[in-house]
Every structure is written in structure tokens, then in C-alpha cells.
Amino acid sequence: MTKLWGGRFQKSAESWVDEFGASIGFDQQLVMEDLEGSVAHVTMLGAQGILDSKEVEQILAGLAELKSKAEAGELEFHVANEDIHLNLEKMLTDLIGPVGGKLHTGRSRNDQVATDMHLFLKKRVVEVIELIEAFQKTILQKAEQHVETIAPGYTHLQRAQPISFAHHLMAYFWMLERDKERFNESMKRIDILPLGAGAMAGTTFPIDREKSAELLGFSKVYLNSMDAVSDRDFIVEFLSNSSLLMTHLSRFAEEIIIWSTDEFKFIELDDAFSTGSSIMPQKKNPDMAELIRGKTGRVYGNLMGLLTVLKGTPLTYNKDMQEDKEGMFDTVHTILGALKIFEGMVRTMTVNTERLHSAVHSDFSNATELADYLATKGMPFREAHEVTGKLVFTCIQRGIFLLDLPIEDMRKESELLEADVYDVLKPEAAVRRRHSLGGTGFDQVRIQIDKAKALLS
Ligand code: ARG
Prior knowledge:
- By secondary structure, the protein is mainly alpha-helical.
- It folds into 3 domains: 15-105, Fumarase C, Chain B, domain 1 (Orthogonal Bundle); 110-358, Up-down Bundle (Fumarase C, Chain A, domain 2), CATH 1.20.200.10; 361-456, Ribonucleotide Reductase Protein R1, domain 1.
- Strand 1 (150-155) and strand 2 (158-164) form a beta hairpin.
- The chain is elongated.
- The strands form 3 sheets. It has a two-stranded antiparallel ribbon with strand order 1-2. It has a two-stranded parallel sheet with strand order 3-4.
- The chain has helices at 15-21, 24-27, 31-47, 53-71, 84-96, 109-145, 165-190, 209-216, 225-230, 233-260, 287-311, 325-348, 353-361, 367-376, 381-398, 407-413, 421-425, 427-432, 442-456, and strands at residues 150-155, 158-164, 192-193, 220-221, 267-268, 350-351.
- It binds arginine (ARG).
- The site of arginine has 10 residues, from helix 6.
């Protein structure tokens, strides 16, 4: 096969060289975007009188045919044609004859590929945002059911203070809200059109870049052709936003895994989101949560990969940039999958409220309440902390909890302690009384949920 750029070459490359350089194996995922870009480009060429209307008509008809074939999965791509751009151009000329060669007037693969990537991410980021929001809705629904479900809250993975289980779930709502914000804000930088930058210096043809932007639905065009063809910041930003999203999903996944253990048993995952073991019949494994935690690694890797690709490349386009694609496709695929799975996993999981209730009644997570009680009665908090610590130590020695310690024993440490301390020590009270803004008090959690709902509507 002769190359579309073969004019100045005396001999052809070895097939394995072609294979190494080709991107068609993966950039065929850009087929729709590439066709879209071409439709806009040739329409603009026509409007500017650079091509005549007959030529434009022929090319548009050819592109339309390629599009229906692409939709039907009937396009055959060849490594010899290197990438999606040359594959489609070859198919077009095979289909409509030499006039197909006019499509590339005033355009280069450099502005073409950058345009495809912008178009691709513009669509995918919308999908990501939709899936984040669907997951947020599910979290919100679960939270609403568990405002008054008391659970142990942890620091250092040690029981810290009793909380509303809804409060714990809602923490992830807000992480996802920030993720959504970041993806939304990144749109501003994805929504810039490189087309018309040519290879890197612009073109002598009287093109209208604003027109192309309008046709493709971009709100701006790059104002520097060299920047236009070499900018991959918007992809780095996407990978970075995805990495942070995966960090959040991975932390949540880790909790789901811990909560599902026999040791915790705070939740049970639905069968549909669990797997069995081939040897141990009793097992029900939280594979999906583990996989999401595990896949976080590849998304971080994709970010590091692209940053490293870019750091040593002089302006403008270098073939290194072809390496921007696989990591991006992989990341899109990974985060869309992870969000979808996670939503279903949380929607269908059962919260073991009794277990949570008993967990919180058999620990010292109400110790802060005792210290606060003393501080409220005028004892300096440091001293109150010390007194409480001593009472906790007494309980540990006797194998009981603070609520079981008789008032006489309590008063040995401080006369400020009176019978009403037991009300304060109840885990429900510990949660209920935390009225501070953003705290775990039931009223605060309800306010939080209302605000969250308003954000989504
Ligand atoms: N396949 C190439 C890429 O993905 C397209 C741009 C090629 N441009 C060039 N001058 N070789 O980056």
C-alpha cells in the first residue's frame, strides 16, 4: 500500500516499523469525532469559497456514508494507513475519487487530532458528570434512610465518636460534589477549538476558524496556532480530575470492604455485586469494591504517563503526543465503569442497623461527652480530659463501659459528676447534641441533606 504522505519517500518502512508507529489500533475510537471535524471543516471551506459547492457536496456525501458505515461497524481499518485520520481519508477517496483529497485543504493532522481529542472529551466529561450525579442521588437516598442510625465514627481506624451513619455517607456526597465541580470547570478549557492551526503556523487559505468553531459547538478558538497543536493540558487536567475522583471512590471502596467483613458486619453487599470463591463455599467477596480500589492505580499511572510524555517535548507537535490517547481512553472507560458499579453497589447494599447500634454501645466513643460535661461545669478541658481518661482506665480494668460505672465511682474522680451524666453518655445523645454547623447532630445532618438535595435539583 502506498502512503498518503509517500511522495518524497524512495522506499517503504518495514511492516513492524509501521505497526510500531500506527495508532489506528486505538484511535479508531475517535472515528465519530474525526468525521464530525471533517464535516465542519469542509462546510467552512465551502462557505469561504475555498472549495466549490459541488466538491463540498461530494465530500459531505462521502463523509455521511462513512458515518453510517461506522455506526454499523462496517469500517475496516488498516495499520498501513497509520491512524484514524489517514484511514478515513483513504476510505473517502476510495469512495468518491480524487476530490476526497481536497478535504485536507488548509488542515493538518496536527490540528485535526487535537480537535478530535477536544470533541471526544467534551462528550465524555458530560457523561462523567451525569454518572457522578446519579451516584450522588443514590448516596443521598441512603443517607435519608439512616439519619438516625447511630454508628461508630473513627479516627486512626479506632472508635472515636458516635455519628449518624447518614453523616458518614454524606461525606462522600461532598467529595463527589467537588469532583463534579472540577470536571465542570475543566470544560472551559476543553471547549476551545484548535482546528485551523494547520500543522502549527496557520494557513494561507482564507479559512474562517470562528465559523468552524460555531459549526462544532465550541465557544472559543485557540489564539496561537503553535499552542493549539501542542496543548494537551486539557487531557492532563482530565486525568488529574479523574485521579482525584478515583481517590475518593477508592477510599469509599476500602470502607465498603471493611464494613463487609465478619469483624465489622456493618453492611451486606447485594449478591449482584459480590462474587464467590472457587474453593471456599462460605465466601462472599466484595470484588467490585476491591477492583475499583485497584483500578485507581492505572488512572494515576495514566496521569503520570502523560505528564512525563509532555515534559520534554519542544514545540510544537511531536509524535510523542500520540501517547496521549490510550491513557485517556482507558481512564474514560475506567471511571465510567467505576461510577456505574459503585452506584449500584451502594443502592443495593443492606445497612445492618442493629449491628451498628450494638457496636456503638460497646465502646468508649462517648468519652468525649464526659469530658465536655465536666468542661461545661467549669473544669478546664485539659483537666476534664485527664479525669475522663482515669475513669476509662477504671472501666477497662473492670471490663465495663462508662454507662455501667456507678455514680459513686465516678464521683471519686470529680464531685462535678452527677446522675444526669448518664443521659449525656448515651450514644444517641452524643450524636443528637452535636448541633454545631456541619456536625453530626440529627438536625444538622437533615440540614445538610436538604442543601445537598437543593444542589442536585
Ligand atoms: N496519530 C497521530 C497522533 O495521534 C496524529 C497526528 C500525526 N501528525 C503527524 N504529523 N505525524 O498524534
